[in-house]
Amino acid sequence: MSEESLSQIELEMAVLSRRIASVARNKREENLVRAAYLLLFQISTHGPAGVKGLAEELQLDISTVSRQAASLDQKGYIKKVPLPQDKRSYLYEITEEGRREMTEYQQIRREKVDELLSDWTEEERAQFGVLLKKFNDSVKVYWSKG
Amino acid sequence: MSEESLSQIELEMAVLSRRIASVARNKREENLVRAAYLLLFQISTHGPAGVKGLAEELQLDISTVSRQAASLDQKGYIKKVPLPQDKRSYLYEITEEGRREMTEYQQIRREKVDELLSDWTEEERAQFGVLLKKFNDSVKVYWSKG
DNA sequence: CTATATGATTGTATCATACAACTATTGAGT
DNA sequence: ACTCAATAGTTGTATGATACAATCATATAG
């Protein structure tokens, strides 16, 4: 019944959390810092944005986004575009190099997922992708409420 | 095709990782430290074990398990059982209080998952649970190889 | 008996995060 | 126009979960 699925999801989420924590401290980083990947992705898909807007969209603290952005900026993957009407803020826009780097990083990640799921059927992959997205969407809503 | 599922999983895993990191730093802790939950679970389902064995099973560094176990021990959720034939090591076994605490924590987590997935069908939950477990299993194998 | 291996602990570093304090700029009310 | 509150962003500090390296105590092999 329902209870069983709940238990399973609850447990497997704990397992996955643990694994993710472990991966995060373990992996030698390439150029693109893992955490900043989604920031770069956000800018690349939704266009230039300021720190505040990015933080809201990603549901992260402004200070966190500020640091991630500074790091991407320093690597030349994004650059500040000043706003004439407000000298406090700017928009970050992705650079050519940033787009290249993101694509490359994505490709590496995809290959890893592919390898990881090498014994999965296409149907399983498709289902998992859809449900995982649905899960994240649910979490996002839950988060924004309380 | 396959590419699309891969991309989706790759992206949504990044999103989930980020969220998990955020939850980890955000949440006020109850009695049971989040990370130690799986350690307690392992002992509760597989019986008494030493630090080394637990670390292997959980694929964590021995030092990490040692600290988590010390924390659970200090809270009275597990206790050391000396081995007469080897004074270096002991087995940790779960206490009554530990079992109670674990069950309670589990229950709270399940309720949260239930709330989170309130608009999911039973079929979706079941599928997600199964696929999530399969994913974790795949990761575990991948990890143990390289 | 000594040297090496083993189980566990402890010291230290790291990463991504949040919260709090701060800086610079803007805008509103008088 | 001046002051004071609001706002965008940065920087300081703390935290949790981890890994790796050094160490300690005990056990075992030669």
Automatic annotation (TrEMBL), chains A, B:
Domain annotation HTH marR-type: ranges: 6-137
Alphabetical list of InterPro entries matching this protein: HTH_MarR-typ, WH-like_DNA-bd_sf, WH_DNA-bd_sf
Record key words, sorted: DNA-binding, Transcription, Transcription regulation
PANTHER family xref list: TRANSCRIPTIONAL REGULATOR, MARR, TRANSCRIPTIONAL REPRESSOR OF EMRAB OPERON
Protein name stated in the entry: MarR family winged helix-turn-helix transcriptional regulator
